[in-house]
Amino acid sequence: MKVQNYRQVVCKEEAPGATMRIVAGPEDGAPNFVMRVFEVQPQSSTPYHSHNWEHEVFVLSGSGVVRHAQAETQLSEGDVVLVALNEQHSFINTGEGIFRFICVIPLVDGKLPSMPPAG
Amino acid sequence: MKVQNYRQVVCKEEAPGATMRIVAGPEDGAPNFVMRVFEVQPQSSTPYHSHNWEHEVFVLSGSGVVRHAQAETQLSEGDVVLVALNEQHSFINTGEGIFRFICVIPLVDGKLPSMPPAG
């Protein structure tokens, strides 16, 4: 069993104004999926992209939208988003505080999946 | 893409004083893992048990402990617990408010895993 506060975990920049922490992953012994915590600053966002794995997202605090092919959907505390495989998406902070959410992804062959090269 | 607030999801009693909501699961199209939200009332707990799948837990609010073979570990907002396969565990509310946490589990053959019969 491993217990830690997410704030103790080193964060890395995923995009300008958006950081990510891996709070439960292969290095902790997680065998199947990876829990990450994102913090997006006001007017910042995660990249608009797609990939062949899903997201399960839980909004912890702040407010924003998830942009997708159909439109944008408002998000606030307690909202859950299931992003399907190959579905375009971006999480955008439209509020004044930090937009904070959990995002769980699967492991692929026991490893973190990697984005296909651009181009 | 599916978006819903966890409070909109029907909850069921998992143990006396402990409810569970499946906020992203097979019925929503989740292919690999299941996100649940637990709410445990003061002085209540989830069962002390083990099973051959892992948990990734994120504490949303309240305070409690996770009981395990070694001892009990205090938990509060932002704490993350990785419970390994076959590790005994129980989540106990030791505070005065609701002890609320996310718990993610894997799907097994595309279905929710079921507890082995007691015996």
How would you briefly describe this protein structure?
The structure is a homodimer of 119-residue chains. With 119 residues, chain A is mainly beta. Chain A contains no helices and ten strands.
List keywords for this structure.
119 residues; homodimer; mainly beta; 0% helix; three-stranded antiparallel sheet; 48% strand; Jelly Rolls; six-stranded antiparallel sheet
Strand order of the largest sheet of chain A: 2-3-4-10-5-8
Q: Kindly state the number of beta strands of chain A.
A: 10
Structural class of chain A: mainly beta
Indicate the percent of residues in helices of chain A: under 10%
Most strands sheet of chain A: 6 strands, antiparallel
Strand content of chain A: over 45%
CATH architecture of chain A: Sandwich
**End-to-end gap of chain A:** 42 Å
Which term fits the overall shape of chain A?
globular
Count of runs of 4 or more consecutive helical residues of chain A: 0
Unreliable parts of chain A: none
Can you identify the CATH superfamily of chain A? Jelly Rolls
